[in-house]
Amino acid sequence: MLPAYISHPDCLKHAMGEHHPECPERIGAVSDMLLIKGLLDFMQPCEAPLATEKQLAQAHSSLYIRSIAAQSPKQGTVQVDPDTSMNPHTYRAALRAAGAAVLATDLVLTEGAGTAFCNVRPPGHHAEYAAAGGFCFFNNVAVGIRHALTVHGLERVALVDFDVHHGNGSEDILRDDERVLMCSIFEDKLYPFCGNTPRGANMVNVALPARSGGEPMRQAVSEQWLPALERFRPQLIFISAGFDGHRDDDMGNLGLVEADYAWIAKQIVAVAARHSQGRIVSCLEGGYELSSLARSAAAHVKVLLGMDD
Ligand SMILES: [Zn+2]
After folding, report:
1. So what's the pLDDT on residue 2?
2. For residues 33 and 221, what is the distance between their CA atoms, to the nearest angstrom?
């Protein structure tokens, strides 16, 4: 099958207030740009299913899963942390976002989709084993990774995370899981203010100074991510694709541009071609300035589709 494009209308119903940066419009900004650029012509559109409790429990405690379900309001909003809240549609959107990663894994591993891009929200990489936070409820990539390991029986799965914020939730869930290698770059001294000291031997964390631009990022990937990925020989690569390090996005200050996101995708595609039969599952994380988010995501997907020049 064609590379998969996975999303769901439920992801637009979750909203955390009028001025919240993690807004429903993010999904449409990305899908519109993929459409305008002609990229969706080369992808199979798929609706994200609801993740099951059993699938979520591969990455989260059952108590936590039930507490999120129990907090889901019938009306109004419930604040889960200072930046993160639930409306009546949030729980379902969160199940769709995690379900997208599960479906993407299935399509890439058994249907020959090659690659899959999940245009979903809420994002996931700040969600820990038993804690929501940073706009995240369930850790979408971690749920997908554990699905690949336990249901499909893969032995080695890599996660690369280039969001401007460190994926503390993914690290919390996946640390010391020898079947997983996690490579992360993030802006130093930025939310969630951790990651400088990796919490497990399977973590390659690189903190980049603010306003450093694309060159130090490329150097960190070349010198630290790529040798680790070569040694690990992943059978499948997940991407926590956050575009909030773009210079137009005031959520962070890394100063990256579209060409940097295309470059990093090219490196991942090359590793996947060597070790993973080209298999990549990419899930949207951050990216809050709608225009640069859309352009960066399109540059990213274009490379995943092998259409870069
Ligand atoms: Zn972020």
Report:
1. 97
2. 27
